[in-house]
Task: inverse folding
């Protein structure tokens, strides 16, 4: 008994340091971080050594030099006399342009197709299914080549361009369409639209509170229409409806005037939208199916009409399921836009590739591409996470 | 389908190779030792220019660029077949060479100051004197490059062509719209499909593509202007002088052989020649092989090249000249004794 007590009283012997879990944990972490630092240091040292040995230039000084190559399409002013930095910016705006339009149209197409797959109309549901199964299962690269080849080979040269609408021409130079000449009135119209939008949102909130308080409904739909469409129209006519059009006309080799969309841009946008749309369709379908039928039945029992049922009961619950995978699709679409290279659309990667080739500074160029895509992806994730928090179910 | 990621991984791999590959500094002679140990070397060629480098129906590369690498292989191994051909686009080629993925570029590469310095490259002797031109469909009705204001122009990225084009239009205060596609096949397909009014490139390559790809070559013409000098030369990395020397003298020997009248057919007879210059070059009088390769086993280097591949004139005629569908004129690419620019340094 006594010996047992003595045994219990003796403090447990400290284990040898290499057996102590705390010390081991710290040691492992120190070793790991140290190893990582050593590896990175070795890589950088070796890289600089090798670059130095081959006399390859380094640093970002090249960005200030004259680019001296032409770029086919650009949203901002650019000429070969501009710098590499400017050329890079052109590529970035082109990437953002196609990605932004792609996200918008893919969401619309995907939502429509996702709902169509759930349609009780046999033909609609089957057509949507064929669309999804076809375009989801063919590699995007091939689809891009397909659309681009179609646009290039099917359409005639600019001198034999098809006129599909008055003053809208389709040729293998792209789609050319008239645009109104710039006019200060348009800024006021845009401002009126924004004001209408803000007021509508405020009105909607107020109407909702009022409905909760009093049970009375206000015609929010009509008010929204009047504010968002009516107000800008009033402003537009108030300025005397300026509608002078810059009409494209054939001059020399190509159309001049108007605005145009190149076959490369059109093919890229079409490919990205149709491909990503299939995934979004499936996500939307899954999201809606995830809301149990009982919810719809309950809504029907409350006497909600089918539109209200979708808007007030099913969609808010479906969005919880839809938003996270939708974010991934937006990210994929943005990153897939770099496939522009293969069909010759001057996106970020294409221009960075040219820059790398002309300056020989591949490491800097790749670092810039990676930084940009990282930034874009994190921004999209950030925005979508905020939205996700707004639509996520509030647990009580 | 994270294609960007795939591309980046590819590029990152190249960067990693640059990072680690030459952890052992590229000492003079390292390339030759490496390829002797490996029993062959890899040669970066274009992805498809008829007459210069194109795989045949069996996938075997043939053409002018390919023959330069074959001559190198013949000189080193006594066998033209010890070459692995790596097709590289204009954008890929320099990184591939810098990183050691290939040992030499024979890729219609223009020798420029910036490439020779900042890109860490060394150029061998010029194997083809070219100039940039414009290929147009005849039905466009254009007779001069000065009439091209507003044209849509197909061009390959990562080339001097792309830069010369911008310079030329700036100098002449004209506008153009470039359509830039990386793969040669795609860019020519786009041009012949009518996507562009004009195709621009080295005029010899334009001539070759016109014959090789147009459904009816007579519908197309090359405009008379040559807007640049395009001296095309094989390229090696900085840091291995011996390898650079070997490339230099393998090419010089091809040119010198033509000048001396040594051909594939008569090279064996030439071994009996009394001309001391021929004896030196063909290794009958030893010394040159040791000078170039550092050991005694290579005295037959020039003999092997000519016996197995032929001299410069034979290579030219067979691939792009009179004996080929291209039928390019020798023009600047004739011997200096015949009004051209080819001039081999003395082999002695």
Result:
């Amino acid at each position: 008994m006594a010996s047992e007590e003595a045994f219990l009283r003796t403090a447990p012997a400290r284990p040898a340091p290499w057996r102590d879990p705390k010390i081991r944990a710290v040691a492992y972490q120190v070793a790991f971080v140290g190893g990582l630092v050593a590896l990175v240091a070795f890589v950088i040292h070796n890289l600089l050594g090798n670059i130095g040995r081959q006399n390859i230039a380094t640093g970002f000084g090249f960005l200030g030099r004259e680019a001296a190559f032409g770029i086919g399409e650009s949203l901002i002013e650019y000429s070969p006399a501009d710098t590499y930095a400017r050329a890079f910016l052109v590529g970035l705006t082109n990437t953002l342009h196609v990605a932004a339009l792609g996200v918008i149209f893919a969401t619309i197409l995907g939502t429509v197709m996702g709902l169509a797959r759930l349609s009780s109309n046999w033909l609609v549901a089957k057509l949507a299914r064929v669309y999804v199964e076809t375009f989801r299962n063919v590699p995007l690269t091939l689809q891009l080549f397909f659309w681009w080849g179609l646009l290039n080979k099917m359409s005639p040269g600019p001198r034999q361009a098809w006129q599909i609408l008055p003053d809208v021409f389709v040729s293998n130079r792209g789609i050319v369409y008239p645009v109104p000449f710039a006019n200060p009135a348009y800024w006021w119209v845009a401002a009126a639209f924004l004001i209408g939008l803000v007021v509508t949102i405020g009105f909607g909130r107020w109407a909702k509170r009022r409905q909760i308080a009093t049970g009375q409904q206000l015609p929010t739909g009509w008010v929204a229409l009047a504010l968002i469409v009516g107000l800008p129209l009033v402003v537009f006519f108030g300025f005397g409806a300026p509608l002078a059009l810059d009409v494209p006309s054939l001059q020399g080799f190509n159309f001049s005037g108007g605005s145009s969309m190149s076959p490369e841009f059109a093919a890229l946008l079409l490919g990205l939208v149709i491909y990503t749309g299939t995934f979004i369709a499936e996500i939307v379908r899954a999201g809606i199916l995830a809301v149990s039928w009982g919810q719809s039945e309950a809504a029907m029992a409350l006497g909600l009409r089918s539109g209200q049922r979708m808007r007030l009961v099913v969609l808010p619950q479906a969005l919880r399921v839809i938003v996270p995978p939708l974010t991934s699709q937006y990210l994929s679409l943005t990153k897939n836009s770099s496939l522009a290279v293969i069909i010759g659309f001057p996106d970020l990667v294409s221009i960075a590739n040219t820059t790398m080739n002309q300056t020989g500074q591949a490491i800097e160029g790749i670092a810039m591409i990676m930084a940009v895509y990282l930034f874009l992806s994190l921004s999209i994730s950030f925005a979508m996470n905020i939205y996700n928090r707004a639509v996520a179910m509030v647990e009580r | 389908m994270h294609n960007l990621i795939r591309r980046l991984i590819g590029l990152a791999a190249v960067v990693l190779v640059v990072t680690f590959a030459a952890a052992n500094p590229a000492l003079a002679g390292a390339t030759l030792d490496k390829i002797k140990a490996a029993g062959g070397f890899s040669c970066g060629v274009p992805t498809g220019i008829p007459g210069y480098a194109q795989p045949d129906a069996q996938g075997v590369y043939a053409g002018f660029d390919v023959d330069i690498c074959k001559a190198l292989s013949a000189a080193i191994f006594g066998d033209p077949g010890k070459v692995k051909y790596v097709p590289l686009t204009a954008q890929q080629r320099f990184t591939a060479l810098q990183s050691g993925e290939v040992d030499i570029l024979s890729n219609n590469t223009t020798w420029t100051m910036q490439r020779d310095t900042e890109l860490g490259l060394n150029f061998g002797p010029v194997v083809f004197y070219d100039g940039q031109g414009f290929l147009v469909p005849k039905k466009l009705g254009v007779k001069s490059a000065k009439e091209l204001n507003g044209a849509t122009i197909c061009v390959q990225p990562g080339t001097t062509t792309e830069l010369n084009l911008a310079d030329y239009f700036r100098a002449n205060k004209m506008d153009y719209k470039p359509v830039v596609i990386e793969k040669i096949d795609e860019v020519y397909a786009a041009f012949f499909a009518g996507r562009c009014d004009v195709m621009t490139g080295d005029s010899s390559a334009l001539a070759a593509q016109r014959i090789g790809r147009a459904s009816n070559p007579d519908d197309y013409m090359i405009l008379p202007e040559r807007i640049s000098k395009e001296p095309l030369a094989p390229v090696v990395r900085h840091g291995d002088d011996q390898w650079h020397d070997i490339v230099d003298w393998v090419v010089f020997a091809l040119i010198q052989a033509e000048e001396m009248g040594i051909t594939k057919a008569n090279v064996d007879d030439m071994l009996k020649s009394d001309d001391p210059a021929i004896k030196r070059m063909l290794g009958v009088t030893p010394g040159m092989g040791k000078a170039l390769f550092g050991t005694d086993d290579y005295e037959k280097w020039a003999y092997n090249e000519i016996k197995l591949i032929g001299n410069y004139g034979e290579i030219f005629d067979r691939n792009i000249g009179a004996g080929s569908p291209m039928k390019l004129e020798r023009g600047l690419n004739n011997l200096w004794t015949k009004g051209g620019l080819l001039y081999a340094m003395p082999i002695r």
Observations:
- Residues 241-260 of chain B form the longest helix (20 residues).
- The CA atoms of residues 40 and 82 of chain B lie 5 Å apart.
- The two ends of chain B are 58 Å apart (CA to CA).
- The mean pLDDT of chain B is 89.
